């Protein structure tokens, strides 16, 4: 081991031996990318199938704190990018990871983040094949920022998207909502909240593939990240020109999250998630999709929460326990910044 520093210095971004030692020992030794060129050279049998298509996505992660109950920024980076591919029907295959590191960041923290990324990539069946590191002056990056890009393959004949949603389609989520946003809020410690909450952060590639195998008619899916379930449903309803009605009694919510939101004046439907998706499928396939999702750890709490209706004045409505309805609009502003 040649890297003896305990904290990142500007020399680790200078292009010399210090930078090479950091990259080799903290990143390359763990990710083991194929080759050492400035680009990853990728081959995959699925690409040779007639009608197969590439899916490509990118995202940046700036969460505070960097480590929190249920995960860290590295887990977010891998799972978030895998999920963006998965909800489009793609099989995630390759990721890139670029790090902006603040001078003074603990190298031990970097090692933990990278180790988490390797574990999550292995779970998701993807490889981190290329990346980059930059070091900025103290006070310019809040520890670590990560940007990831992902590539996957959509098999021939699969075409899912919000425009395909039809009236009568069932709306399904894969578990309790708002855990990530609530866990981050509690972990910051600013409000002296004592809540036993952990982020829902998880890769959903295997769950999405299982759901598609059981219910090949799935029309569309989206992961409920910033803006929560409410924003995802509003976006999808607008694209499909339908109204989505969800039932309050069917929403899977932890009492701790509901209580936290009541104290702070927040709405759990707008809290961020990092391991939750919402999908639409024909009603006759809903139970099959539900059973397939519940068979996996990431989908144990799956529930049918509503349906698509003919377009009305508002894209999303919540049917309350009192028999009335309230409008669920797009999130205006930001409930909680630096969340993912």
CATH superfamily of the largest domain: PurM-like C-terminal domain
The major β-sheet equals:
7 strands, mixed
Total beta strands: 13
Helix fraction by DSSP (H/I, runs of at least 4): 25-40%
Content-based structural category: alpha+beta
Portion in beta strands:
15-25%
Helix count from the secondary structure assignment: 8
Overall mean pLDDT: 93
Mind explaining what this structure looks like?
It is a single chain. By secondary structure, the chain is of the alpha+beta class. It folds into two domains: 145 residues, 60s Ribosomal Protein L30, Chain: A (2-Layer Sandwich), CATH 3.30.1330.10; 166 residues, PurM-like C-terminal domain (Phosphoribosyl-aminoimidazole Synthetase, Chain A, domain 2, Alpha-Beta Complex), CATH 3.90.650. Helix content is 29%, strand content 24%. It contains eight helices and 13 strands.
């Amino acid at each position: 081991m040649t890297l003896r520093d305990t904290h990142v210095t500007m020399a680790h971004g200078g292009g010399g031996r210090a930078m090479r030692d950091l990259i080799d020992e903290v990143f390359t030794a763990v990710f083991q990318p194929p080759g050492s060129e400035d680009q990853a050279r990728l081959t995959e049998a699925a690409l040779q199938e007639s009608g197969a298509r590439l899916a490509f996505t990118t995202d940046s992660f700036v969460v505070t704190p960097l480590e929190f109950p249920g995960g860290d920024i590295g887990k977010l980076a891998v799972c978030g990018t895998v999920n963006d591919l998965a909800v489009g029907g793609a099989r995630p295959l390759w990721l890139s990871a670029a790090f902006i590191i603040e001078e003074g960041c603990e190298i031990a923290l970097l090692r933990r983040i990278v180790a988490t990324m390797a574990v999550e990539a292995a779970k998701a069946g993807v490889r981190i094949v290329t990346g980059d590191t930059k070091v900025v002056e103290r006070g310019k990056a809040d520890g670590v920022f990560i940007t990831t890009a992902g590539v996957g393959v959509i098999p021939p004949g699969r075409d899912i998207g919000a425009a395909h949603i039809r009236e009568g389609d069932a709306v399904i989520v894969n578990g309790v909502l708002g855990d990530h946003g609530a866990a981050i809020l509690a972990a910051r410690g600013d409000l002296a909240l004592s809540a036993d909450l952990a982020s829902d952060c998880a890769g959903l590639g295997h769950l999405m593939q299982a759901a598609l195998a059981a219910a090949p008619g799935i029309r569309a899916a989206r992961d409920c990240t910033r803006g929560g379930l409410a924003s995802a449903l509003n976006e999808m309803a607008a694209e499909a020109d339908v109204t989505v009605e969800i039932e309050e009694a069917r929403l899977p919510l932890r009492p701790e999250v509901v209580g936290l939101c009541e104290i702070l004046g927040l709405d759990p439907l707008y809290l961020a998630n990092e391991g939750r998706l919402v999908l639409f499928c024909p009603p006759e396939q809903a139970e099959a999709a539900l059973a397939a999702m519940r068979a996996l750890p990431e989908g144990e709490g799956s529930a049918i929460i509503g349906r698509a209706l003919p377009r009305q004045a508002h894209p999303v409505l919540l049917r309350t326990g009192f028999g009335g309805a309230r409008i669920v609009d797009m999130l205006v502003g930001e409930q909680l910044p630096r969340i993912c």
